[in-house]
Every structure is written in C-alpha cells, then in structure tokens.
Design goal:
The protein is an alpha/beta fold. The chain has two domains: 2-101 and 242-267, Rossmann fold; 104-237, 3-Layer(aba) Sandwich (Rossmann fold). It has eleven helices and eleven strands. It has a six-stranded parallel sheet, with helices on both faces. The protein has a five-stranded mixed sheet with strand order 2-1-3-4-5, with helices on both faces. Helix 1 links the parallel strand 1 (2-8) and strand 2 (31-37). The protein is globular, with a radius of gyration of 18 Å.
C-alpha cells in the first residue's frame, strides 16, 4: 500500500485525506493518507521519519512549513517552487525528495474549467505574496495577452516581475487598476479570511468576465461580493483550485490523472 500524508500545524481542518482517498477510488489505487501535525521545531525530523517507511511515496505540506519544505528539496524542485521558494508537494524518487508547488497548476485547471481558454486574456493578480509567485508562471504559459500584478507595496510587485522576467508580465500601481481593463481578476491575498478587501478600485471590474478569489468559503467572500456589485460578470472562489492542485500532486505521485468535477461537487462546503 502506498503511503501519503499532509503536514501542517494546525492540520485538523485539512480536506486532503478525503480528496486523495476519493482520487484513489477513482483511479484504482490503494493508499493510506493521513494528517500529521508536525511540531513547529520538529518539521524536518517528522518528514524524515515519515519517508523512512519504504511505503511512503509523497506528502503535501501546508502552513507554516512550505518554505522549510523547499529547503528540503531545493536541489530538485519545479520552476514554480524555485520562484516561490515554497513547496506544497514532496515526492520521494530514488531516495531523494523532489519538491513541487502545484498551486499554479490547480489555479489554471480551475480557470480553464470555467473559461475554456486564457489565451488572449488580460489577467490581473492582486497581491504579491508566495501565492502570486507560485501561479504567475503557469498563467503565463497559457498565453494571455498580458498579466498584471498590483499590490499595496509596489516594490514587492516589481520584485516578482523582475524575478520571473517575462515581457507579458507587468507591475502596476493602484492608480492604474482601471486602465488595465482586465478580463480576469484574481485575488491572491488572504484578505477574505478576515473579511477584508485587497487593493481594489470601484471601476476596475467593468470589463471583468471572472473575479476569482483563491480563498474558498461556503458563502461568497467579500471580494466576490464587491466584484459582483461593481460589474464582474461572474465570480468564483478557490475551492476548485484546492481540489485541482491536489489532483496535480496525485498525478506526480502515481502517474494517474483523476477526474475532479465530481470530487469538487461532493466536497464543496
């Protein structure tokens, strides 16, 4: 039996075991997937002990350990992980840990399920944290017309653009939000967790086909509500992204691609 886990602190709220066991049922895999609350000062030892079991194939990593997971796999990580300097998926291959950030894969998959294509779209990212670093590259690979990033601290947005260095990627100020006329606006901040709004402008949603919040909730987030009130044609939360990024990890570990629509529908809060 293949063995998997998710590491975090706290971790009791994680839906990962339910998601991955559903994936296993769909693909004919027999797995064990557990939640492990690693001590703050003992994350590395806990991961090492987990992978000492020859059945252990991979694990997911959530807050507050993603940056430390990157350090465990820095020599063997994907482009998104190298850019974000954070890892949410570890895979043991020939005794070595490979690190991945699958958030961008998950976001793109969820957006494509809604929009069909991102080609030729003007996309705006709000926020300049690790989440933004992990999704910018995959979005750019979908051939948008342009990708913009806005943040309260402009220098942080500029730093991400400089690190990724793609001619379609540009940092803008809050005063320029309206002029972008973005088709897709993505809130990459955690502001919705506390009922706050990220940096926004009342007129920035005039051409918006989809306002997307990476935070998920049983009710529309404040960002989603605001976007709908100001003219966004559609809104969507990040629950689909959660399931899709898990599917990307499952594929990395097993080579199998699970169907996600039914899982999203069944588990959605």
């Amino acid at each position: 039996m293949k063995k998997f886990a998710v590491f975090g602190n706290p971790i009791s709220q994680s839906l990962s075991p339910a998601i991955h066991h559903m994936f296993a049922d769909l693909t004919g895999e027999t797995i064990q997937y557990e939640k492990i609350e690693a001590p703050i000062e003992g994350f590395e030892d806990t991961v090492t002990n987990f992978f000492a079991d020859e059945r252990a194939v991979g694990c997911n990593v959530t807050v507050p350990f993603k940056e430390r997971a990157f350090k465990l796999s820095e020599a063997n990580c994907n482009e998104e992980a190298a850019t974000a300097k954070a890892v949410n998926t570890l895979h043991k291959v020939n005794g070595c840990l490979n690190g991945y950030t699958t958030d961008g894969m998950g976001l793109v998959a969820d957006l494509l399920s809604t929009t069909g294509s991102l080609s030729g779209k003007r996309i705006l990212l709000i926020g300049a944290g690790g989440a933004t670093r992990g999704v910018a590259g995959p979005l750019l690979r979908e051939n948008p017309e342009s990708l913009f990033i806005a943040n309260r601290t402009f220098a942080k947005a500029q730093a991400i653009v400089s690190d990724i260095a793609n001619p379609k990627f540009e940092a803008i100020t809050a005063d320029e939000l309206v002029s972008v006329e973005a088709h897709i606006i993505i809130n990459c901040t955690s502001a919705s967790l506390t009922g706050d709004l990220p940096v926004v402008s009342e007129s920035m949603f005039g051409k918006c086909e989809l306002a997307y919040d990476m935070v998920y909730s049983s009710q529309p987030t404040r960002f989603m509500q605001y976007a709908a009130e100001k003219g966004a044609a559609a809104t969507r939360d990040g629950f689909g992204m959660l399931v899709e990024q898990a599917a990307a990890a499952f594929t990395i570990w097993t080579g199998k691609t699970p169907e996600t629509a039914g899982v999203i529908q069944k588990l959605r809060p």
